[in-house]
Amino acid sequence: MMKQELILLPMIALVLLTAIVWVWLYLTRVGTIRRQRIPPQALATRALGAALLAEVAGPSDNLMNLFEMPVLFYILTILLYVTGLAGTGHPVLASVYVALRYAHSVIHITYNRVLHRFLVYVASCAVLWAMWAWFTLQIFERARVGI
């Protein structure tokens, strides 16, 4: 594998996490719907289903979270790859970011202690913003030297 392709591995790992949470969401929801004999129409809107599916809200909430800040990660990963700026440090930071997202998801869909989840979230955001800052500096440096 080429050095540049290493930046894609954490992105693939985050896609895998999203798939795992998606499967977990549907398994827990379908189980709850069957067990409680909830008619499908009772879930026509998110507001209607919220109370009925409150006990399995964690996976649903977490899946939505995986389409918030991680979108910036996906964009950055693709930009790093396309521009050829993904050096040794970026894949390391990207892996740390993804590991923190895995920890966030585990907390969110299991015991859901808000303070623990929040601390992991803040740490993951700090890593992501650091990656964006580094990339921005690299782009400015390229523009300055005219590459």
Share of helical residues:
over 70%
Query: What's the count of strands?
Result: 0
Structural class: mainly alpha
Task: Return residue spans where pLDDT drops below 50 for at least 5 consecutive residues.
Answer: none
Largest sheet: none
**Rounded mean pLDDT score:** 94
Query: Terminal Cα separation, in Å?
Result: 26 Å
Q: Number of helix segments? A: 6
The radius of gyration over CA amounts to 19 Å
Output the helix-strand order. Answer: HHHHHH
Overall 3D geometry? elongated
Structure in words:
This protein is mainly alpha-helical and 147 residues long. The chain contains six helices and no strands. It has helices spanning 8-36, 46-52, 57-65, 69-83, 89-109, 114-145. Helix 1 runs antiparallel to helix 3 (57-65). The mean pLDDT is 94.
Summarize the structure.
The protein is built from six helices and no strands. With 147 residues, the protein is an all-alpha fold. The relative contact order is 0.14.
